[in-house]
Amino acid sequence: MSKYQPEKFHQQAADALADPQLRQNFRGAMDYLQEKRRTAFADPKEEADIRDCAQAIRQRCLSHLPDLLEELETNCTANGIQVHWAENAADANAIFLAIAQAAASPSDHPLLMIKGKSMVSEEINLNHEMANHGITCLESDMGEYIIQLDGDTPSHIIMPAIHKNKQQVSDTFSEHLPHFTPTTDVDTLIQTGRQQLREKFRTAQIGVSGVNFAVAETGTLCLVENEGNGRMCTTVPDIHIAITGIEKVVAYLSDVPPLYSALTRSATGQAITTYFNMISSPRKPGELDGPKAVHLILLDNGRTQAYQDEETRQTLQCIRCGACMNHCPVYTRIGGHAYGTVYPGPIGKIISPHLLGLAATQDLVTASTLCGACGEVCPVRIPIPSLLQRLRHEAKQPPDSGHDPLKGQQAAASTSEALMMKSFALAATHPALYHAGTWAAGKVNQWIPDKLGHWTQCRTAPKPATKSLHHLMKRKRKGASS
């Protein structure tokens, strides 16, 4: 279980800001990733065209999502892939457990699942839940493997260990891996991790992966990766379990290349990743590799709630590139752990309320400068700033009757704040009352304290002018007339 919680955002952010090594690690990594993206999108017109195309594909597919999900299930089943539906994290974990227990033999002790990178598996807390039943889940993505050794959690959706530098990785290996000779040579560190994982691929009974794109037309699961561990997880073990959110479905195979291009350029500045896996069935007769059984778990977990409203539906366009994080002035200074959610940064702030409710995430929706950097780089043009404003409103206001409310809606409502706003509205619509108030404020401005709660943590307390602009202009007019 993660030690970071969204309810503790302010303290976690303060701790991150007070950690100079963490800030240095993130600053270097973010500068590098921003430059890589700029290089990948050197032509502004090409960038605009790619983003327009990716946005159009995602919006078209989402507009037909219920039908596409049924088509995906039909074609996956025809291909021999077993499809499961999970309403929430508990359902998904129960499906994993049932598959594992059905496949286990008396000699499988302990049962081992080896995982490729999957943020949805983080979302359901798969590792912890399986451990409760004596099943080991081993991360095989190098970044995930490093932080699993530390008992940590990912701080970025693309680069899970981005908060660590090579010396810290060496220290982790020294603590947890026998016979490791400390080194800060990156190639040696990577080879050390791969040597530890190699035998695990062969002995694991179950391989687990995420899904980048699920193609309804062909019943194909597409997996994007750079390390080859995803391919090992999905081909070597006898059972492959893929888990994905219901929004990842696309209509046609031809929808994938434009999204793939937008994803890789936005995420790591690559024209294409090292590996692109397409899985359409389990091993067929005569084939030498591949799993004997493939399972696909389609997870809702709050996505349907976001889907019901056309504005919040745009949240589901996300292709998990992480570009919004890499360019966010808040994320680049505090990192991912401060948010306390599986999906941190700008995209996390708009999707986490649908997954966890607004009571838990009310502080996250206000943790933004609304500068618009996230919206400017999003490859599918999600209007993140406007969605944050929508969620800020819903955190304080009663739900609209047009759609199911978010869990925890109105959690940030404040009686004193509401009273203050009503008082201001009254004064602003009654000129005599307003002018009397500004006159009184000018008389007591020297007694206004310098500290006004959270507002003055990073701002100077406002001091009303001794005389209002209205008063000065009125006096000037009198002087001119005389």
In short:
This protein is an alpha/beta fold and 482 residues long. It has helices spanning 9-17, 20-40, 44-63, 65-79, 89-103, 119-123, 126-131, 142-149, 166-176, 186-203, 229-235, 256-268, 303-307, 323-327, 331-334, 345-356, 358-361, 373-377, 384-396, 415-428, 431-443, 469-481, and strands at residues 81-86, 111-115, 135-139, 206-209, 213-215, 220-225, 239-245, 249-250, 275-279, 293-299. Helix content is 49%, strand content 10%.
Notes on the protein architecture:
- The mean pLDDT is 92.
- α2 (20-40) crosses α12 (256-268).
- The chain has helices at 9-17, 20-40, 44-63, 65-79, 89-103, 119-123, 126-131, 142-149, 166-176, 186-203, 229-235, 256-268, 303-307, 323-327, 331-334, 345-356, 358-361, 373-377, 384-396, 415-428, 431-443, 469-481; strands at 81-86, 111-115, 135-139, 206-209, 213-215, 220-225, 239-245, 249-250, 275-279, 293-299.
- The longest helix has 21 residues, at 20-40.
- β5 and β6 (220-225) form a beta hairpin.
- The chain has a 6-stranded parallel beta sheet with strand order 1-10-7-4-2-3, sandwiched between helices.
- Helix content is 49%, strand content 10%.
- With 482 residues, it is an alpha/beta fold.
